[in-house]
Hints:
Elements: E1 16-18, H1 19-25, H2 34-38, E2 43-47, E3 50-53, H3 58-66, E4 69-70, H4 72-78, E5 90-92, H5 98-107, E6 112-114, H6 125-133, H7 145-156, H8 159-171, H9 176-185, H10 188-197, H11 202-217
Parallel strand pairs: 5-6
Antiparallel strand pairs: 1-3, 2-3, 4-5
Helix pairs in contact: 4-7, 7-9, 8-10, 9-11
Amino acid sequence: xxxxxxxxxxxxxxxxxxxxxxxxxxxxxxxxxxxxxxxxxxxxxxxxxxxxxxxxxxxxxxxxxxxxxxxxxxxxxxxxxxxxxxxxxxxxxxxxxxxxxxxxxxxxxxxxxxxxxxxxxxxxxxxxxxxxxxxxxxxxxxxxxxxxxxxxxxxxxxxxxxxxxxxxxxxxxxxxxxxxxxxxxxxxxxxxxxxxxxxxxxxxxxxxxxxxxxxxxx
Length: 218
């Protein structure tokens, strides 16, 4: 599900922030947090000490409530790629998130949960704000697409589906270098299987092969 448009003070924070994060950002000035706390129809208190944009989708709200991030095929489907949207969202948690696990089991027991540590982390609040100032579209509720692609190829897609998705992403203008990176950080068996199927576009295959060769000799 794609997010609807609608600006809020939290959009430049990646659509979510804790009270402590806002205090650090505004150097302890409680008065600066009033627009976030009052909401004015654009922000709301999700749970104690956590503020979100009011325009979030149900899946994004679920991820925020549980303390995780949307991941895997949920992220890829949200990009408009030719991949079937899952019946239930895929969420990513860090290992040891006991509070998040409790909320997930209570409120989203059908969600597909990935506990593996990400190779590419969700941007920090500071990095998110820098991106927003440069005209970027920061999002702290979703895993970066390269990490979501790696997770999908590793756990949730068949090799044939992975190959079809890579080809579609090339056609949609995704950089071959980015796709090659996602392949090389996935388990080796994924790369080998896609090679045998002839499912990796030639330019992506060349860049991935060169990267793996450099890694082998380093």
